[in-house]
Design a protein that fits this description.
Elements (H helix, E strand, L loop, with lengths): L6 H17 L6 E7 L3 E8 L7 E6 L2 E9 L7 E10 L10 E5 L2 E7 L16
Antiparallel strand pairs: 1-2, 2-7, 3-4, 4-5, 6-7
Pfam family, one: HSP20
Protein name: Hsp20/alpha crystallin family protein
Family: Belongs to the small heat shock protein (HSP20) family.
Length: about 130
């Protein structure tokens, strides 16, 4: 039995099979996990054979949408949605400090809480 040794060829074939499988109604499993901590939360997304460039993270008010699109290298107009998930963020998330990191096949979206969340504060009453 002779194995194909050209890794670039195998990557291209795998990408084309993924694209055709998705367009043909196949399923691409994406795993999403939300971890909550005292200082914030982290959304972890694992999607098999999805390039980091295929992921998009969009924030609109307090709505965070994560999605990925699989595009053909030969025909840029041929694309298929792979994954789409929307999260309604709670008010304690500091929207200005959200960041996304892709490492080792995993997308991590870090949702830090406001630093003063949970601290006791007395509100001064003004007299008019």
């Amino acid at each position: 039995m002779k194995l194909i040794k050209d890794k670039e060829f195998l990557r291209n074939i795998a990408h084309q099979i993924d694209l055709l499988n998705t367009l043909g109604g196949g399923v691409s499993e994406t795993y999403v996990d939300v971890e909550k901590y005292k200082k914030g939360a982290v959304i972890n997304v694992w999607a098999a054979s999805v390039n980091p460039e295929s992921f998009k993270v969009v924030l609109n008010n307090n709505q965070l949408t994560l999605f990925s699109v699989l595009q053909s290298d030969e025909n840029p107009e041929m694309a298929a949605p792979m994954f789409n998930r929307t999260f309604m963020l709670p008010p304690q998330v500091d929207l200005k400090r959200i960041e996304a990191v892709y490492e080792d096949g995993q997308l991590q979206v870090k949702l830090p809480y406001h630093e003063d969340t949970g601290k006791f504060r007395e509100i001064e009453i003004k007299q008019l």
